[in-house]
Predict the structure.
Amino acid sequence: MQFITERMRPGHKDYDDSYIELVRSIDDKVRDYYFFMSLDKNHVLDDIIDSIETLQINFWEDNIVDIANTGKSKYSGIKLIKNLYNIEDNDIYAFGDGHNDIEMISKVRHGIVMGNSPHALQSVADYIAPRIEEDGFFIACQKFRLI
């Protein structure tokens, strides 16, 4: 498994010392977005928090945390693409299913969430699709005539 990719840093593994060393080894490089998951998030963050000064940390599930450069988010990425390609607000659709989608879903014109998403996310959505395992994404795309 290749842990490092060019623009995104996914990490799906249990905590161990090599994990912390890997985080420290990539921290001095410019990254747009980090994603980490650990069974013991507080221990991981306690170990690396002092070495990461320019990042924001967002907890969105009990065992999942997003780490991104300050000011970077899913919504900031949408704004970048919107401005780059001169896309109208009415033509932007965002889909989400977790706490880390709240900002994005609440700020776009068409915020669509899956029926299995947390109540906090559903409360800011424009449309709640069926659960993902009930073809919620596909049904929402059909409803909004995206396919």
Notes: Residues 8-69 form one domain. The chain has six helices and seven strands. The CA atoms of residues 42 and 53 lie 17 Å apart. The helical segments are 17-26, 41-48, 74-84, 102-107, 119-122, 136-143.
